[in-house]
Amino acid sequence: MTSDEGPSSDPLTVIAIAILAYAGANVSHEIIGHCGTMVLLGGKCNYISTIYIRTAPELPFEWKFRIDAFAGSGANWLVALICLCLLRTWRSASPALRFFLWLSTCVNLFLPSTYLLVSPVIRFGDWYSMTIGLSHPFFWRSGMVVAGALLCWLSFRLCSSELSKLIGVEAKHARSTAWSLVVPAYLAGGIISIAAGLFGPLPLKWALFISGGMFGVTCLLLLLPLRIRVRTIPTQDSFVIPRSVGWLVVGMLVASAFVFVLGPGFSL
Fold first, then answer.
1. Which residues of 226-255 are buried (b: 16+ CB within 10 A; e: fewer)?
2. Three-state secondary-structure class, residue 92
3. Helices of type H across the chain
4. Which residue of 77, 88, 117, 151 sits 20 to 30 Å from the alpha carbon of 70, by its own alpha carbon?
5. Residue 236 confidence class, pLDDT cut points 50, 70, 90
6. What is the pLDDT of residues 195-233, one digit of tens each?
7. 169-187: per-residue pLDDT in tens?
């Protein structure tokens, strides 16, 4: 009896790639975005972790504070744009590298867009903080929710389109291939975020709330395979990520540094 499933991607390599993508999104948001902007504004970050940053001096609720609050999400959108351009340029790159660029694009789009949608509603986070001290804050927050919903929809459509191109719209077992890539990546990214957060300086409930939020802000990933069309007669081979020792080693090193160094945080 023969199987019709064909070759499949190596799950450990997929997980390693996901760790790199999620850790990169966190570093982009917290260090490149918030801390980098703080330096440009004349201050500094004197404590850095995956879920908490302490700045000096503390910025009052004025234009500098709002610029720094925006900078985290702005950095994610910028990284997403860079990864998308590379993904569309390096079409002959290895499947593993192309998947990394696709996943990094999606995570860096979904994180700030969903954050923009949810933060004003739950009255917590960068976007909510930006409205403190503004006149008519309800209208600002309502506008953020609408903008966040629109950006989530646009991000979802873009990531869905790029996933179809990545796997191949005529590929064998395209939808099952998408599930085998997206689900372990989503779980690995959320778990590594929580693991790092648990080593952080905040109380347990806040560490779980903030780090566990990564599951929420990237949950649209799980809907992307449903957009893959199922072809009755496929004309392309399946998209396969083979086991790669290089990706595994880099993934383990980054996971260790992310959880045990950046997770607890350090003073500068």
1. eebeebeebeeebbebeebeebbeebeebb
2. coil
3. 11-27, 36-40, 63-89, 95-122, 126-130, 137-167, 174-198, 204-217, 245-257
4. 88
5. low
6. 999 999 999 999 999 999 999 999 999 999 998 876 655
7. 665 678 889 999 999 999 9
